[in-house]
Specification:
Elements (H helix, E strand, L loop, with lengths): L1 H7 L17 E4 L2 E4 L2 H8 L3 H12 L3 E3 L5 E4 L4 H15 L10 E6 L2 E6 L5 E3 L3
Antiparallel strand pairs: 1-2, 2-4, 3-4, 5-6, 6-7
Helix pairs in contact: 3-4
Amino acid sequence: MLDRGLEETPEISAESERLDVPDPELRQEGNVTVFENFQAVCDELGRTDEHVIKFLQNEVGTSGHIDESGRARLTGEFRASRVREAIDAYVEEFVRCPECGLPDTTLEREQGALLLRCEACGARSPTGG
């Protein structure tokens, strides 16, 4: 029975095509970097914009907020490559399952700890947030 079950189990691969995060579109407005497609990035990640902006602020070492049209406004001048690195770090910590590598995860709080729960393999892992 175990052999038959293993044969019928689909192969799980960590294909990067499953999560296609758009490149950050940035523009400068004085001393502020405007992240134009911030909401699209959050939607693709499946995470709240508040959680993502908080991580970005910590990662790039600045303050920021989300304006009324859903754009992130970060104080300071940042290159797209730096913001992309921060998004990639967010994906590794809060989106991809550390067990199977798939992005089919949700964040849940249990007894004050933030856990990453994988919908694909069922793993539950603590996160740094």
